[in-house]
């Protein structure tokens, strides 16, 4: 697990006291692991972790549904770059 | 007979309606929009900026400080615009539902006034700043679908009320800040005047719906309290827009945002901004003391 993905897991776990683990394919949105109120902070976290701005008017929700999707969309590209 | 999920709302609104009608002004003609704003004037009270009271403010150059007041004024007004868009959608969808038939007269005033607020906030930002900040990213997925219909309804009006109360804290301060340009002071003064009535209305409708939630299932009240406390924190977070720091020429916007939000002086300021709202929520029985943490 990369440091970035670990930081994402920590963000989710600290906001969901009843969870003790986040599986890679858990639907974070349908399960409310990331709810509408935490989503803005989550975007800022991803911006810090990637060093790139994320345009709030150009978001695809499916990019945020699972840890796998987040890794593929935000962290793998950076590894390749 | 089907059991109604949400009982019709009945409120004594004659006084508020009279005030809305007698206090009517035409915002399209009443403001004197100057060609430009004096470059040495802050657009937001310096004590209300997100870095106020911290070493992070003191470390800025005067030019950066003034720039931050400009961009944070634009952020504040942009948040107002996007908040009003949301509340207008919600109210328009309900205005002639049976539940709200008894309050639709006031809702018509409310819709008209909020549309006008949206106009003069946009006018200020676009005329002097050349931009609005985009709406915060939001999940269209429903984060409250686990709650009953009446609790979800309560949350719609709670969000409107909380938004109005936080904004009004800022308006009330800036309405009398003689360091601001006249046009900025006037916009805040006029908005404060209208919002005082909107807050009064919002509190009445909130209490009515909360009573319905508590009667239907008292166990749902702490869940509502938990959501509302999160919404208060969320609302504070939206004031700390890293795009405003970047535009003001301040480096490391995201790290600065995190440090500022956590700074004790800022946390004390947040307590002040939220004090009135939290006091009201506790008084009516849905305060943060109900939230298990």
Automatic annotation (TrEMBL), chain A:
Gene3D superfamilies: ACP-like (1.10.1200.10). InterPro entries: ACP-like_sf. This is Acyl carrier protein. The lineage of its organism: Bacteria, Bacillati, Actinomycetota, Actinomycetes, Pseudonocardiales.
Automatic annotation (TrEMBL), chain B:
InterPro entries: AurF/CmlI (IPR025859), Ferritin-like_SF (IPR009078), RNR-like (IPR012348). Gene3D superfamilies: Ribonucleotide Reductase, subunit A. It holds the Pfam family AurF. GO terms for molecular function: oxidoreductase activity. This is p-aminobenzoate N-oxygenase AurF. It comes from Actinokineospora alba.
């Amino acid at each position: 697990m990369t440091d970035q993905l670990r930081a994402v897991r920590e963000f989710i776990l600290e906001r969901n006291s009843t969870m003790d683990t986040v599986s890679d394919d858990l639907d974070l949105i349908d399960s409310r692991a990331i709810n509408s109120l935490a989503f803005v902070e989550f975007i800022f976290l991803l911006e810090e972790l990637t060093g790139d701005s994320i345009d709030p008017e150009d978001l695809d929700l499916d990019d945020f549904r699972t840890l796998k999707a987040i890794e593929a969309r935000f962290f793998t590209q950076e590894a390749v770059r | 007979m089907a059991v109604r999920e949400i009982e019709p709302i009945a409120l004594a609104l004659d006084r508020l309606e009279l005030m809305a009608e007698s206090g009517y002004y035409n915002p399209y003609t009443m403001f004197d929009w100057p060609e430009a704003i004096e470059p040495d004037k802050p657009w937001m009270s310096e004590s209300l900026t997100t870095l106020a009271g911290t070493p992070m403010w003191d470390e800025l150059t005067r030019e950066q400080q003034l720039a931050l007041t400009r961009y944070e004024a634009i952020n504040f007004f942009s948040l107002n615009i996007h908040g009003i868009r949301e509340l207008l959608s919600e109210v328009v969808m309900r205005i002639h539902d049976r539940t709200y038939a008894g309050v639709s007269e006031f809702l018509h005033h409310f819709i008209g006034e909020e549309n006008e607020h949206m106009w003069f906030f946009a006018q200020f930002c676009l005329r002097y700043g050349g931009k609005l900040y985009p709406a915060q990213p939001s999940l269209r997925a429903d984060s409250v679908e686990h709650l009953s219909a009446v609790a979800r309804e309560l949350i719609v009006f709670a969000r409107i009320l909380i938004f109005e109360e936080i904004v009004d804290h800022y308006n009330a301060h800036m309405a009398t800040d003689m360091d601001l340009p006249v046009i900025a002071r006037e916009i805040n003064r006029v908005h404060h005047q209208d919002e005082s009535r909107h807050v009064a209305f919002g509190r009445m409708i909130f209490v009515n719906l909360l009573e319905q939630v508590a009667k239907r299932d008292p166990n749902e009240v702490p869940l509502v309290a938990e959501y509302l406390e999160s919404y208060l924190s969320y609302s504070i977070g939206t004031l700390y827009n890293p795009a405003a720091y970047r535009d003001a020429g301040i480096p490391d916007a995201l790290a600065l945002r995190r440090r500022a939000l956590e700074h004790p002086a800022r946390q004390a300021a947040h307590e002040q901004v939220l004090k009135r709202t939290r006091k009201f929520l506790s008084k009516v029985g849905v305060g943060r003391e109900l939230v298990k943490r």
